[in-house]
Specification:
Elements lengths: L13 H8 L2 H12 L14 E6 L2 E6 L5 E3 L13 H13 L6 H8 L3 H20 L6 E10 L14 E10 L5 E8 L5 E7 L8
Antiparallel strand pairs: 1-2, 2-3, 4-5, 5-6, 6-7
Helix pairs in contact: 4-5
Bound molecules: zinc ion.
């Protein structure tokens, strides 16, 4: 079978995922690096000196200066959860690996949790993704066009009817202040979503 560059794009394999995020400690380190890229800072006094404590299975940072305690998961998507971070990370991985979305029921089976738990995880992750995308709301002069990705395989129908191509809708907003525009690409089934910034000086969208 001929290769289709879209279908065979590189991603994180399951063994690679478990190697990097298979233990609670690895997930904690990953979350800590995202929250405090330059190391812990006390949210109250900005101090860097701290002790690391444990509250049950949760990592807690206590400021040496003002003794304020900050849980690693407080203020994050995982706040208040009793689930291990490994379960959350696996859910994020699984959802990111499928083109057509993953139901709460499928998540229940794959994570080995109850349906209400799977539903909550699913709901929170979908909400977080929606919140993230909302930041890229297009405003001002918005231009929309349809386009196709792929078509690497030979044979089959040509043009828009080709089964080798993935249709998507691309939208750009042109701003007058920064001369930058956000370029958003939606797959037509709205399950895949990619955003990237593009300089307004670059060429027109390729079809
Ligand atoms: Zn402090």
């Amino acid at each position: 079978m001929a290769m289709n560059r879209i279908q065979f794009q590189a991603g994180l394999s399951m063994p690679a995922f478990f190697k990097d995020y298979g233990t609670e400690e690895q997930c904690e380190q990953a979350l800590e690096a995202v929250r405090w890229p330059a190391g812990f800072r006390c949210p109250r006094c900005e101090g860097a000196a701290h002790y690391v404590l444990r509250d049950g299975n949760r990592k807690v940072f206590q400021c040496r200066g003002c003794r304020h305690q900050a849980s690693l998961i407080a203020g994050t998507l995982f706040q208040g959860t009793k689930l291990p971070l490994t379960t959350w990370f696996l859910a994020i991985y699984l959802i990111s690996q499928v083109k057509t979305g993953l139901s709460a029921l499928a998540l229940k089976r794959q994570l080995g949790v109850s349906y209400p738990t799977a539903w909550l995880v699913h709901h929170k992750l979908m909400q977080a993704m929606a919140d993230r995308e909302r930041r890229y709301l297009l405003v001002g002069n918005v231009q929309v066009d349809d386009a196709y990705l792929g078509g690497e395989r030979s044979g089959g129908k040509a043009g828009r009817g080709s089964e080798n191509k993935v249709p998507f809708i691309a939208a750009v907003s042109l701003t007058t202040t920064t001369h930058e525009r956000y370029d958003q690409s939606f797959r037509s089934d709205r399950t895949r979503f990619a955003t990237h910034r593009r300089s307004a000086t670059r060429g027109a969208m390729k079809k």
